[in-house]
Amino acid sequence: MKTKQKIALLLLPISLLTACSTDGGVDPMVQQNQSFSDFPEVAGLSGSKPEISAPKGTPPAKLETQDIFVGSGAEAITTSVLEVHYTLMAWSSGQLVESSWDSGQTATFPLSGVILGWQQGIPGMKEGGRRLLVIPPDLGYGAQGAGGAIGPNETLIFVVDLIKVS
């Protein structure tokens, strides 16, 4: 085969891929992450308490999740019993409400026994993972709140480290 034919055959798949790509002016990865631009930023190493920045803007009306670290262990399902570390922040104040990291003790509970935001936002998460959950009031504590820093109609920000699934 001649050199020009070889080069043409090598360039054909590249030109086809380029022709099939779209440039609607928005990078799909940027578009996907734009909804998180006003959300709190989560930093910190796996196995340590996360650092969470205060959110900006209006809270979302629906449950939002973002994997900070993707785990590699067993996957949580709706009937799982979970062992987790978590940190909770109130959207309206940007204040940390509580964190299991502060006591050094993990929390263990059936997923079916917690707020709907967890029941909908945790399945699919794997042991060793860290996930940001932004939970609107209707999937959290609603109009009654939970007392203290979690007032009525509060949007909740949880950072959850999934330690064990059983």
Automatic annotation (TrEMBL):
KW Membrane (keyword) present: no
Pfam families in the record: FKBP_C
The PPIase FKBP-type domain, residue ranges: 79-166
The keyword Isomerase is annotated on this UniProt entry: yes
Enzyme class of the recorded protein, top EC level: isomerase
Keywords (A to Z) from UniProt: Isomerase, Rotamase
Protein name, UniProt field: peptidylprolyl isomerase
EC numbers on record: 5.2.1.8
Transmembrane annotation, as ranges: none
GO molecular function, one term: peptidyl-prolyl cis-trans isomerase activity
Catalytically driven reaction(s): [protein]-peptidylproline (omega=180) = [protein]-peptidylproline (omega=0)
Organism from which the protein derives: freshwater metagenome
